[in-house]
Backbone:
């Protein structure tokens, strides 16, 4: 699933939000780590430190691709 990384004004970290949340108006957004942010408290920009919990959860969804030698 594709994600957007937006900053929460609550903790000033960038969290991963599913791309489908970026479409249309919403009253709040829920990050992969279960952090939720109301519309007026999310900055639609990648700024600040990345949320470690979001990084881990997004990373575990990546396919296990082995490099060929």
Residues:
């Amino acid at each position: 699933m594709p994600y957007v990384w937006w900053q929460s004004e609550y903790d000033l970290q960038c969290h991963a939000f599913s791309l489908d949340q970026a479409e249309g108006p919403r009253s709040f957004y829920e990050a992969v780590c279960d952090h939720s942010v109301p519309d007026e408290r999310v900055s639609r920009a990648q700024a600040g430190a990345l949320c470690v919990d979001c990084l881990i959860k997004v990373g575990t969804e990546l396919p296990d691709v082995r490099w060929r030698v």
Observations:
- The mean pLDDT is 90.
- The longest strand covers residues 3-8.
- The two ends are 28 Å apart (CA to CA).
